[in-house]
Specification:
With 507 residues, the protein is of the alpha/beta class. It is built from 19 helices and 17 strands. It has helices at 38-46, 53-59, 63-72, 99-111, 141-158, 171-175, 183-191, 193-197, 203-220, 235-251, 273-283, 299-306, 315-326, 353-356, 360-375, 396-406, 440-451, 473-481, 493-506; strands at 10-13, 17-20, 23-26, 34-35, 76-79, 89-94, 116-125, 161-169, 224-228, 260-263, 287-294, 338-345, 382-387, 411-417, 432-437, 458-462, 487-490. The strands form four sheets. A seven-stranded mixed beta sheet has the order 8-7-6-9-10-12-11, sandwiched between helices.
Length: 507
């Protein structure tokens, strides 16, 4: 968007700034970004998101030049004059409050002024900012949630859209509630982020979110619907994708005449995950027809748009990743920038989550090993889980209940290294015993010796290297010492439990 003469634009201060004693501070920074003159303070306070630059000029002489300077410094956004049309109604569902702009911002800019746009964010309640990676003490979930909402409302206004939020809880806060976070938790998040966010969706969460989305769509009555493809391994993206498909299945004729498009989640796109997901849907009879839209003409404006989410990333870090995903290197359109999407055709059917996972091949091998196990699970008398260093226990409470329900006649023994014991807590069931293994590999040798003669014990070994030929070598050697038993290997307890639930449902 070329600004040119800005008189008719409406300035809006970005929500990250606080004015204190004539100095502007970015979020919790103690170093001022800018010091204002007394006249500039009056202008700054007068920017309310309703007055145009021309109206502010009449009150504050030379306001236009100052606002232009603040715009260049990314302190103020300039909202273009527009009157959104009443229809047709495009509804975009995003997992987090930035995903629509990151993944489909260019295509949305093309539709500004051409249709009514509503962006529906699933996740609202969050404590995530880039300060987590900097190990800064900014964990106020209420303040962060409010900040992210204001970012999204500003981005929506730049798109001529409305923003709505279902206020779902972010994955790190589902893993550990906000009141239990501390700087020690931040250290753990930085070291093992995947433990907080990389897990398969819980079927109950998918079903509940599908119901919430159904109610929301009944209110919004979309004429076209965009949903995430669920690329990558973030549980919120995967849950939103699957809930959207489940919503379409439940809706039946309600969505029959509505174009439904999956956008590729950025910056997670790349590799062959999108093709794998398309193949999984095709195997169930749902076609995903891939297309691209040239967004070269609005790409710089898209970068400005996503820079509004400054609590989540620095544009200097995100831009190369977004640009790389958008680059076309081959064919007649080489050198242009595009966004990819997949149009749903045919009756929507949701494939098993294991087929949609980026680790599908490894999970398929694990699933083959588990088939015989499911048939005789009620005869199982003892189950041992060994969570070695670098394993992800993940969603412990739900997975613990899954194991107890799947093996109703078994005693459960869970051994976990002291490095990851914080990911789980001992449950209140008499059938489960939880033990922290200390002293590194010497401690694990002791566990193996104790388990050595408990023949026919189903044993699940969790370790980061389980799906890697080189990294899993030590684990497989350990398995050789556990004789006369069924030994299974997985990276995450959630992988094992997710497959277990799939197998039981299909049994």
């Amino acid at each position: 968007m070329r600004l040119g003469k800005i008189d008719r634009f409406i300035p809006q201060v970005r929500p990250h700034y606080r004015l204190q004693d004539r100095r502007l501070f970015f979020m919790i920074s103690r170093r001022p970004s800018l010091e204002l003159s007394p006249e500039e303070v009056l202008l700054y306070d007068g920017i309310d998101g309703r007055k145009t630059v021309a109206e502010l000029e009449r009150i504050h002489p030379r306001a236009g030049a100052t606002i232009q300077r603040w715009h260049e410094a990314e302190i103020v956004e300039l909202l273009p004059p527009m009157t959104p049309p009443n229809g047709p109604h495009l509804v975009v569902i995003e997992p987090h409050m930035d995903d629509a702009a990151l993944s489909a911002g260019g295509r949305l800019l093309h539709r500004r002024d051409r249709c009514r746009i509503t962006i529906v964010s699933v996740v609202g309640w969050s404590n995530f900012t880039t300060y987590l990676y900097l190990k800064r003490d900014f964990l106020d979930a209420r303040a962060i949630t409010d900040l992210r909402l204001r970012e999204s409302m500003l981005a929506a206004r730049l798109l001529g859209a409305e923003h709505r939020c279902l206020n779902w809880t972010d994955a790190p806060l589902r893993f550990l509630p906000a009141e239990r976070w501390s700087m020690e938790t931040v250290e753990r998040f930085v070291r093992a982020r995947n433990a907080f966010v990389s897990m398969p969706p819980a079927p109950g969460d998918v079903s509940l979110l599908a119901e919430r989305l159904t109610n929301e769509m009944n209110l919004l009555a979309p004429d076209e619907l965009w949903i995430p493809m669920g690329l990558g391994d973030h549980v919120d993206h995967r849950t939103t994708r699957s809930a959207c498909i489940q919503m379409l299945v439940r809706g039946g004729d309600r969505f029959a005449g509505i174009p439904v498009v999956m956008y590729e989640d950025l910056p997670y796109a790349g590799g062959d995950h999108a093709a794998q997901i398309s193949a999984a849907f095709a195997a169930r009879g749902t076609r995903l027809v891939r297309g691209t839209e040239d967004v070269t003409d609005v790409f710089e404006e898209k970068l400005r748009l996503i820079s509004v989410y400054a609590s989540q990333f620095k544009l200097s870090v995100m831009e190369p990743r977004i640009r790389k995903c958008a680059e076309r290197k081959d064919g007649p359109e080489s050198g242009t920038l595009a966004e990819a999407y997949h149009r749903l055709e045919g009756e929507p059917r949701l494939p098993p989550e294991s087929d949609l996972s980026p680790e599908r091949a490894d999970l398929a091998a694990l699933r083959m090993e588990m088939r015989a196990l499911v048939e005789k699970r009620e005869r199982c008398r003892r189950l041992t889980v060994m969570a070695l260093p670098s394993a992800y226990i993940g969603r412990w409470t739900a997975d613990r209940e899954c194991l107890l329900a799947a093996f109703p006649n078994a005693k459960l023994r869970v051994y976990t290294s002291d490095e990851i014991a914080w990911q789980a807590e001992e449950g209140g069931d008499s059938r489960l015993r939880f033990e922290v293994v200390r002293k590194g590999w010497r401690g694990w040798i002791g566990v193996v010796l104790r388990e050595l003669f408990r023949f026919r014990t189903l044993t699940v070994i969790l370790w980061w290297g389980s799906y890697r030929a080189d990294g899993g070598l030590k684990v497989k050697l350990l398995g050789l010492f556990l004789l006369f038993r069924h030994v299974l290997f997985a990276e995450k307890l959630g992988d094992f439990c997710g497959l277990l639930e799939e197998q039981i449902r299909n049994f």
